[in-house]
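One such shown below:

_____
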Amino acid sequence: MKKFLKHCGLFVFPIALSLMVIELITAQIPNSYSYKYNYIKTNGNKIQALAIGHSQLYDGFKPESFYLPSFNLCNSSQSYVDNYYILRELLHDMPNLKVVIMPIGYLDVGITRNDSCLTDRSCYYHKYMNIDYDGRVPLRYRLECFDPWRAGSKIIEYYLRHSDIVGCDLMGRRNTHYLRDRKYELGYENILEGYTRKENDYSKFCLENEYYLIHTFKMLMEKNISIVLVSPPYYWDCGFKNINNEQKRFLSEYMVKLCEKYPFVHYLNIESDTSYIYDDFFNETHLSEIGAEKFTTRLNNYIKDFLSE
């Protein structure tokens, strides 16, 4: 038995040591999560408008073009669950915050109500933004080293290729989706189709993680912070196939009911706005730097109107 345990130890120890080293190394690599957390901690008292949510707003909101001092606190695949816990952690650092902007759209409609869903990205919020999700982060998401392929890629990009992997500019907007970086014609990636539900029974649709969106409303309302939900534009001219019209109808009717129930929520729907042309997009669902300027100006005018009332 002792010999067996010794052999097991000789096998396990180098693996455990390697994982520990990977974890320590990745912790030293700059990234958008730690950058944004530290920015809020340092400059939060200056922020009056905040964009928070997934990649459509990560690309679309340009703080420099907004009329209030603002910041882009979005990240790829950032859900309403993430938004809620991020705000709960950082809201007290932004005492002058007046308005919070969040995305909502076709891709947020699901068919399974799972209001406690955490993804592998919760690892980054836990590690770099001090978010523990009320202790619900599973062990496999608590350490980056448990995904050695992704952690290894991160190490190679930063230390060997000397790439800038923070992924955002000084004000938090993604800086890797410029027109010069676009590799494919719009429509090539079929992104929207990937979020299209195959279910056609209207009664089975829901807004994913709605529970946390509503609790975010309540948290912000207690501090008299205005809430804006926005449906960013898609490039419909690329000829999306197999779009689910029932899914679109659900979102439209859901937003009517939501705004009736929560009259303090403002909703700007430009999802089907055809004034956004080819070079306004990086891909068919995400705006380029040109589109971000146009989109932020539209938000600027919309929010300025109701805040000045």
